[in-house]
Write a structure and sequence with these properties.
Blueprint lengths: L9 H8 L1 H8 L1 H7 L1 H11 L6 E5 L5 H10 L4 E6 L2 H11 L8 E4 L12 E7 L8 H10 L1 E12 L6 H14 L18 H11 L2 E14 L3 H8 L5 H8 L3 H15 L8 E13 L2
Parallel strand pairs: 1-2, 1-4, 2-3, 4-5
Antiparallel strand pairs: 5-7, 6-7
């Protein structure tokens, strides 16, 4: 079900279906490669089993959903769910080539989604749950779609100081254009779940049990090297928004791009660019 402008996450639907979301559509292969290690981290923690029913929330172009299908096999079932119709379209196209447990894909807001099928054994998400207008309502709805004892496993970005992908471009954008206006650090956005204690409290209030959180250090991977990594930041990450908010020019963008490229050079070992990253990995169960 698609969002309307009166739905609780209408702003997110607009964001992920318009200009910024279209960048994810166009660059989905590069972004899936960038986040390959996060996919591995989530699935190794979630341990999808043969025959299980899995839902991937915030599935984007479908990489995690497709990978989960390889674990659950022909006897299993995978649903990829995202608020962005364009990204779901990419997922559906990719699923046509999948031979083992091709996922279904659905345009829906996980905060309000209602699924008529049998409950799921497992919900996973790779950096897809930090955008709820009401996180408690979102978690409650996800738990309601799990069987008793069903598992929820998801990764969310740790604070930006631990993630060079966000920190370096934003530092350079601020140096060029001035600081950003103060915002709500817990509002919907990439680092909304940086505070693990807060997320544990949210999950507890939503009714989850067996809650755990850990930080995991990893890397974001750009096999083509630091120049390609810097180019990606021009479309995905904080630069475009800061340029827009500050009325930045093409010259400003070019200067920031040069700075990012030079900063990312140190992460390149000749076999690709390996950008240090940290995520918070959460798990919980439905009672």
């Amino acid at each position: 079900m698609a969002e309307t402008d009166t739905a609780p996450n209408a702003a997110q639907e607009a964001f992920w279906s318009s200009g910024p979301g279209q960048h994810w559509v166009r660059l989905h292969r590069e972004l899936d490669t960038l986040h390959d290690n996060l996919t591995r981290i989530v699935l190794e923690a979630a341990q999808p089993q043969p025959g299980e029913r899995v839902v991937d929330i915030g599935c984007g172009a479908g990489a995690v959903a497709i990978a989960a299908g390889q674990h659950v096999g022909e006897a299993g079932y995978v649903l990829g769910l995202d608020i962005s119709a364009p990204l779901i379209g990419v997922g559906r196209d990719r699923a046509e080539a999948v031979q083992i447990c091709a996922p279904d894909f659905l345009v829906a807001d996980a905060q309000t989604w209602a699924h008529e099928g049998a409950p799921f054994d497992l919900c996973v998400s790779r950096i897809g749950l930090m955008f709820f207008a009401d996180p408690i309502a979102g978690f409650r709805n996800i738990l309601a779609h799990l069987r008793p004892g069903g598992r929820l496993v998801f990764a969310a970005w740790a604070a930006s100081e631990h993630n060079a992908w966000f920190r370096i471009p934003m530092e350079l954008a601020v140096a060029r254009l001035g600081p950003a206006a103060p915002g709500d650090p817990h509002g919907p956005g990439p680092t909304a779940f940086a505070d693990t204690a807060r997320v544990i409290d949210l999950l507890t209030e939503a009714g989850a049990k067996d809650i755990s959180a850990q930080t995991v250090d990893t890397t974001l991977e750009v096999p083509e090297g630091y120049k390609a990594a810097a180019e990606l930041t021009q479309f995905v990450g904080p630069i475009s928004r800061h340029l827009r908010d500050k009325g930045g020019t093409d010259a400003d963008r070019a200067a920031i791009h040069r700075g990012v490229k030079e900063a990312f050079r140190r992460f390149d070992d000749g076999n690709g660019c390996h950008i240090p990253a940290r995520v918070n990995l959460f798990s919980a169960t439905r009672p």
